[in-house]
Amino acid sequence: MSLKKINDLDVYINYVPIVINDETLGSVIIFQDVTKIQKYEQRTRSYLNAKKHVYNKFEWGEQMKKVTLNYGKSNKELSIPEKNLYEILTPMDLEKVADDSGEVRNALNNPIGSVPLKETAQGKKNVIILASDITRPSPSHILLPPIIEELVEVGVDYDNITIVFGLGYHRKHTEDEKKKLVGEEIYNKVKCLDHDIDDCLYLGTTKRGVPVEVFKPVAKKDLLIATGNLEFHYKAGYSGGYKALHPGVCSKRTIETNHKMMIQPGTMPGKADGNPMREDIEEAGQIAGVDFIVNAVLNNNKEIVKVVAGDPIKAHREGTKYIDKMYKRVIGEKADIVVASCGGYPKDINLYQAQKGLDNASFAVRDGGTIILLAECRDGLGEKTFEDWMLKAKSPHEPVEWIKKDFILGAHKAAFICAVLERAKVYLISSLDEDFTKEIFFTPASSAQAALDEALSQYGDKAKVLVLTNANSTVPYVE
Asked: In Å, how far are 68, 142, 303, 312 from 161, measured between CA atoms?
């Protein structure tokens, strides 16, 4: 046993050699003062990091919790003192339904807050069905056939049914892509159109001042059915419901005016009621006259776990309960330190995608706290306008102010990231260059463990650590 001084601490250390076949391979280091083991560990790690020593890990039995986190196509291990570990939040996927088409038919036969579609559709001559574009995971090829069957059963001709793909700002589809989205049989029977952002008709204005300008063929319908999938939306609360109409098939002016609400209080994932962006979308949908929705709830494997149909708000809210069950996690209070893995590749392919994980982590960290974000970012920042704003800013505050004066899609994520950076210290564990990481206002660290040890030494023995194993999909929620 020997007395050592580490960072001004007097520590008694016993070195027990590991010998195999008369060869000394290493040693086990034992701290004699077991009541201060965790404090010594944290400070020793910090000391070794500063001196650039190489070490493996300190083993303290039941006092440390090992966590494995996805990072790119690999993973990282982390040891957290159990006395500091507040909670580990993980998503809980529901199992897929046994029969996808049967689930859709069951939803149509049991609409929520609405009469059945068969009753609504009788006598209609111009039926529009809104479907998601190819960038979305909505299983349109499964949702559409039972809907169209019901329409035909009550006398609606195939020639009087049009499927409109909601593009929002996205590019138009090829004909092969349209066929893939709806299935070859439906494609050959029903007209399939891409929304045109430049061919819209003004229908009214919401109370928040958003002009509701809708793609002309949609505006002239006599029955409007909105389909899509339900998942968290990082500002509008959830996808689905009226969102198929707005922003799906609206004008550039309508979309941009609504998107400016992203910076208002109350816009966040997992919140529909009281969310100004969501409420404006729903008012626009009511002005345009969406009659009926059919939404699929998907798990992380993009499998259908539930289908809801009926009233655009009541059915939507029922569907969100399944999203909440899988991915919303209630916590009692915010933590001092949040360790967040975006979930690995492709969720952390670039910082633009990793922003979702950072945003969700921010809901769990206290003001002045620390976030440790694991995001490989093998493709860098991932979007040109976003990158331009991050690099031209001289402080995190600048993009937050710029977006208020000039809302630009792409740049908006720079503002959202910087808003988090203003209220918390964020370590970024990534493949990005250390100097570049500092240039975009993050704090680089050699590993998640090094960042955690440094944060624990700053906040002390009572620091609370919360872990998000799949931050892009999990929303912490303080009640």
From this structure: 51, 17, 27, 20
- Which class in CATH covers the domain with range 44-83+332-478? alpha beta
Q: Is 194 helix (H, G, I), strand (E, B) or coil?
A: strand
Contact criterion met (CB below 8 Å) for 197 and 170: no
Q: Per-residue DSSP letters for 331-384?
A: ESS-EEEEEEE--STTTTSSHHHHHHHHHHHHTTEEEEEEEEEE---TTTT--H
Give yes or no for residue 428 having a pLDDT over 80: yes
62 band by pLDDT with thresholds 50, 70 and 90: very low
∠ CA 405-407-411, rounded to 5°: 115
List of E strands, 169-210: 191-194, 200-205
- The 3 state secondary structure assigned to 395-441 is CCHHHHHHHHHCCCCCHHHHHHHHHHHHHCEEEEECCCCHHHHHHCC
Location of each CATH 3.90.226.30 domain in the chain: 44-83+332-478
Rounded Cα distance between 144 and 299, Å, is 20
Mapping DSSP to helix (H, G, I), strand (E, B) and coil, where does residue 60 land?
coil
Provide DSSP, 294-323. EEEEE-TTS-EEEEEEESTTHHHHHHHHHH
Cα-to-chain-centroid distance, residue 475: 8
Is 158 strand, coil or helix? helix
What top-level class would CATH report for the domain 100-327?
A: alpha beta
Rg (CA), the chain: 26
Q: 161 and 127 in contact (C-beta within 8 Å)?
A: yes
Confidence at 47, pLDDT banded by 50, 70, 90:
low
Q: Could you tell me if 463 and 454 are in contact, meaning their C-beta atoms sit under 8 angstroms apart?
A: no
pTM for this structure?
0.79
Determine phi and psi for 236, rounding to 5 degrees: -90, 10
* Count of alpha carbons within 13 angstroms of residue 117, beta-carbon side: 32
Domain(s) of CATH 3.40.50.11440: residues in the chain: 100-327
CB contact burial 45-69 (16+ within 10 A = b; e otherwise): bbeebeeeeeeeebeeeeebbebeb
Q: For residue 456, what are its two tokens?
A: 């624990």
pLDDT at 5: 57
Neighbours of 178 (CB within 10 A): 21
